[in-house]
Structures are given as structure tokens and as C-alpha cells.
Amino acid sequence: MTTTTREIHLASRPVGTPVAENFRTVTVELPDPGPGEVLVRNTVMSVDPYMRGRMNDVKSYVPPFQLDRPLDGGAVGEVVASGDDSLPVGTVVLHQAGWREHALLPGSAVRPVDATRVPASAYLGVLGMPGLTAYVGLTRIAPVKEGDTVFISGAAGAVGSIAGQVARHLGAAKVVGSAGSPEKVRWLTEELGFDAAFDYHDGPVAQQLKQHGPVDVYFDNVGGEHLEGAILHMADFGRVALCGAIAQYDAETPQPGPRNMMMIVSKRLTLRGFIVSDHADAAKEFFTQAGAWLADGQLAYRETFVDGLDQAVDAFLGLGAGRNTGKMLVRLG
Ligand code: NDP
């Protein structure tokens, strides 16, 4: 027996902002699982900003996607055929073979998850890589101390929306966020407990952040103008967690750094980049803590779903256009 299924391949490497033509949907036949293997029917897959970097043929912390091969990334699904006794049919699992409707994987490449208390999709967002990123950034990279003022860019996204709430739990006195629409700004202040938020389209970040500083900790998801504006309003000895620079991912040429680098010296700032996969040892602590906050209603999250593999590329492109509030996900099942 075989299973006929579909997957998305990288057809060509994007130059600048990716377009639909850079991707191709391919129908494939998967054999039944052999000993130690499982066949998973994916129910939800993740699209993430870091995938843009993997579409370029450059050396980085993760290898580039290969042309004419399926893309990959986080996904959850259900085991529908199994050659591994420890993963019976019906087991809900998390794995890295997203961008396809079914995945044939060694049992060692999947992790069972408990989808009885939270939906399986939570393991791609609040209880997954994005949530852990927020936690690591504010506990290990730019640790929040009691009474701090914390600024978060990309605050209504998967990482940022959790980071704001984690900052509060760690004792921040004031949490400020920036996001790309009035609806997102309202979500931050009215539902997530941010003390203040602004729409970065309403004026220069440096100008809008002025009334909220000085900032002790900045969690940078965006880079560019946001980073320069934050440096301007950092307190002496402030800490910056450099998590991402989504404003620059589609740039065709190297982008200039902040023009006020000397302030890093004069204010004695610490700016530190990080990659969440280096901090797998923080996962247990985070999942225990986040699970408790979720159970107590002290951690809110939102998911933006699109439906069907045919919409997956659009969902990915939607990240650059700000079409998600909270985690962007593609429902497959
Ligand atoms: P998001 O859920 O935040 O989605 C991306 C969001 O970025 C969009 O919704 C949009 O929101 C915003 N955005 C897009 N273009 C711009 C722009 N030009 N200027 C400002 N905002 C923009 O993604 P994630 O939460 O998954 O990721 C956030 C950041 O964290 C990314 O930079 C990502 O690469 C990084 N990251 C880093 C990790 C690490 O290990 N270092 C791990 C995971 C993520 P809006 O409407 O507000 O513009």
C-alpha cells in the first residue's frame, strides 16, 4: 500500500520578497512505515519568519532549504500507521516535517504531545519554539529584573505576545509594545496586560517610544528603525535581547546598522543575540512554568489559522505583511 499525498517544494530561491512562483505543490506516494517508522497525518503546520533565511543559499545556524525538495518546519499530526510499538496509531505528535499533508518519519523524529488540555497547535506556539524563545530571551539573554521597564517589538506576534506576558511575570513594572495596526495595539493593552503600545506606522519609533522610556530591557524582533529607536531610549546599563530582524529579511543588500552605536558605549548597554535551539535545556523549566500560567489563566495566546496546504505559501507571505495576530498556522487536517 502507498499513501498519495502533497508537499510544498522550493522551486526557486526568492530575490527580495518571496512570491508564489518560488514554491511548487508536488504530489508524492509514501510507502507504508517500515520497522521503527511512523506515518503521520499532519493536522497543523507552522510558518515562521526564520524560514525566509533558509530560502537563501547561505551558511547559517540551520542549513538552507534545497531546491526541488520539500520545505520543512514545525508541525503536529496524528500517527495513522505505525512500525513503532511506542507510537501506536492515534498518537498525537510534534515533529519537523511540516509543509506536507503526510510525513513518513523514524519514530525518533517525533515527540508525543498531550493534546487533551491544550490543542495540539499550542505546541507550535505558546508551548513551543516561539514561547520558549520569549522565555529564554527574557530570562537568559536580557534578564528582566523586578521593577524594569521592558519594550517589545513585534509584540502582537507569536514570540512578542508571549514575551510581554513573561516580562510581567518576571516582575517588570512597565511593559511597552509596538505592533503594526490599531487592532493589534488594542489587543496588547486590553487583553494581554501591556501598559502601553503603539502602532509603528503612526510615526518614527524613536518619537513614539520617547514617552515610555527609559527602557531597561528591549526584546528586539524587528531590527532596523526599531533597534535604533530603542537604543536612543535605553536606560544606562540596559540589556537588549536580539531575537530577530524581520524588517530586514527580504532586503537584497546588506542593511546598515543603527546610526547611534556610540550610545551602546556611553550608556554601557549589553546587546546579545541568541538562537533558541542553543537553549533546549531551558525547555522543561519553561513548559512547566508556562503550563501553570496557562492553567491559571495568566498566559493568553491567539492563533491565526489559514486552511489547507494550498494556503500555506500565502500564510508564510502573510507574516511579512502582518496578517497574523499571535501565531500564524496552517490547518491541514
Ligand atoms: P510573528 O508572529 O511576530 O510574525 C511576524 C510579524 O512581524 C508580523 O505579524 C508583523 O506584525 C511583523 N512585521 C513584519 N514585517 C515587519 C516590519 N517591516 N517591521 C515591523 N514588524 C514587521 O513572528 P515570530 O513571533 O515567529 O517571530 C518574531 C521574530 O523572532 C522574528 O524576527 C523571528 O525571526 C524571530 N525569532 C527568532 C528566534 C531565535 O531563536 N532567535 C526564534 C523564533 C523567532 P506587525 O503587524 O506588527 O507588523
Description:
With 333 residues, this protein is α/β, with parallel strands linked by helices. The protein folds into two domains: 2-125 and 302-331, Quinone Oxidoreductase, Chain A, domain 1 (Alpha-Beta Complex), CATH 3.90.180; 129-277, Rossmann fold. Helices cover 24% and strands 27% of the residues. It has nine helices and 15 strands. The protein has helices spanning 50-54, 129-141, 158-169, 182-190, 205-210, 224-232, 262-266, 283-295, 312-320; strands spanning 2-10, 23-31, 37-46, 75-82, 92-95, 102-106, 111-112, 149-152, 174-179, 196-199, 215-220, 234-242, 270-273, 303-307, 327-331. The strands form three sheets. Strands 3, 4, 5, 6, 7, 14 and 15 form a seven-stranded mixed sheet that branches. A six-stranded parallel sheet has the order 10-9-8-11-12-13, with helices on both faces. Strand 8, helix 3 (158-169) and strand 9 (174-179) form a beta-alpha-beta unit. Helix 2 (129-141) crosses helix 3. The protein is globular, with a radius of gyration of 20 Å. The chain starts with a strand and ends with a strand. The relative contact order is 0.15. The model has no long low-confidence stretch (mean pLDDT 97). Bound molecules: NADPH dihydro-nicotinamide-adenine-dinucleotide phosphate. NADPH dihydro-nicotinamide-adenine-dinucleotide phosphate is lined by residues 48-50, 130, 133, 154, 156-160, 179-181, 184, 221-222, 243-244, 246-247, 274-276, 319-320, 322, 324, 328. NADPH dihydro-nicotinamide-adenine-dinucleotide phosphate binds next to helix 2, helix 3 and helix 9.
